[in-house]
Amino acid sequence: MQQAEIGIIGGSGLYAMPGLTDTREERISTPFGEPSDSFVLGMLEGRKVAFLARHGRGHRLLPSELNFRANIHAMKQLGVERILSVSAVGSLKEEHQPTDFVIPDQFIDRTFARQSTFFGDGIVAHVGFGDPVCATVSNAIVHGCAASDVAGKAGGTYVCMEGPQFSTRAESNLYRSWGADVIGMTNLQEAKLAREAEICYATMAMVTDYDCWREGHDDVTVDQIVAVLNQNAANACKVVAAAVAAMPRERTCPCASALKFAILTAPNAVPAETRQRLELLIGKYLK
Ligand SMILES: CSC[C@H]1O[C@H](OP(=O)(O)O)[C@H](O)[C@@H]1O
Ligand SMILES: Nc1ncnc2[nH]cnc12
Questions:
Q1: Nearest residue CA, atom 2 of ligand 2?
Q2: 43 is in which domain, residue-wise?
Q3: pTM of the model
Q4: Does 1 fall in a domain?
Q5: Active site includes 37?
Q6: CATH of the domain at 253
């Protein structure tokens, strides 16, 4: 039975989801290892939701230490069809001010030490990623911002860096010259793996700072980020609830069939162990 329809991944500052009712906690193991923490399952706005603290409760995991594959696989095991991610980001443009929400529709990859695919070990697949986020989930977040009277900007490019150190000024200015909007350390692998798992994904990015490019302004510090997150936490929860309420029941986007034409390997050439590990994700395509 489907235990949750919508997954919420809470980032920095969001380690629980107030407003969830009928909650219970569940530990989930995956063929890819352990997720960041137990999942909290419950109801939000009449919908079955699964909440996961991305860095674990107590913020114990670096961006590079996150087991993105386990987190997304566990969501799939729960029956999650759409993931709404909440993240703190630095602004790369004057117009994106701390406490604004940006709903990115593109990514630039500056990571280098992460597992970004479920495939390999005898099976090759290439999913389309030209539109890396789900328009339905993005629209629901934009709608949630409007319904909560919060500035929410539809679209923008999220630079995903490795971290954990923040960027140098030269890097920050380079990303600005590329026209990027915001910077963070976590969303790209989630978006890639959600696509491979045929789960819709979009992110609600809360601007917490101006990184280090803005003259006459202090460079980003964790203190500064935490202060903005605390100031804006109630808004973030309001928007999440309103976005969940705005999520259509029907799923008509292409995310649900992302693997349909992606797998290159002949079914009889896939090693048994690999086939078993990926059964939940690709079983229906290897019949
Ligand atoms: C708290 S400072 C940097 C940290 O915040 C963002 O995390 P998340 O995306 O989980 O909200 C950023 O990506 C870094 O991991
Ligand atoms: N300036 C920044 N760079 C990377 N990740 C961030 N998360 C919040 N602010 C950030």
A1: 90
A2: 6-285
A3: 0.98
A4: no
A5: no
A6: 3.40.50.1580
